[in-house]
Amino acid sequence: MDGLTQKIFRAIVRGRVQGVLYRDFARSKARALGIVGTVENLKDGSVEIYAQGDEKKLQQFLEKLKRGSFFSKVESIEVAWQETNTQREDFVIVY
């Protein structure tokens, strides 16, 4: 990204978000927006997302995450923002 400082957020998504293709949904939407990072199921039933990219694209991604996949029901998203100079390569599901 030409050495520009990018934004990154860590989000914890709660609700009916496991076993409903939420991670696949997140990966698909992230890749479509050019966002890199990871999505992972947590033991407490929530989903953790690290997303990095242009702030405007990240805001769009967050809106999609709030709506969720067809079978999911997002109840809440906790988001913590930071800046970074490192660059990931892709958006992947962590198993």
Record the SSE blueprint:
Blueprint: E1 6-16, H1 22-33, E2 36-41, E3 47-53, H2 55-67, E4 73-84, E5 91-94
Parallel strand pairs: 2-5
Antiparallel strand pairs: 1-3, 1-4, 2-3
Please, could you describe this protein's structure?
By secondary structure, this protein is α+β, with helices and mostly antiparallel strands. The chain has one domain (6-94): 2-Layer Sandwich (Alpha-Beta Plaits), CATH 3.30.70. It is 26% helix and 42% strand. The chain is built from 2 helices and 5 strands, in the order βαββαββ. It has helices at 22-33, 55-67, and strands at residues 6-16, 36-41, 47-53, 73-84, 91-94. A hairpin with a 5-residue loop joins β2 and β3 (47-53). 27% of the residues are buried.
Q: Averaged pLDDT, please?
A: 93
Instruction: Give the CATH topology.
Output: Alpha-Beta Plaits
Strand order of the largest sheet: 4-1-3-2-5
CATH class: Alpha Beta
Give me the secondary-structure category.
alpha+beta
Low-pLDDT residue spans: none
- The number of distinct helices, counting runs of at least 4 residues, comes to 2
Overall tally of domains:
1
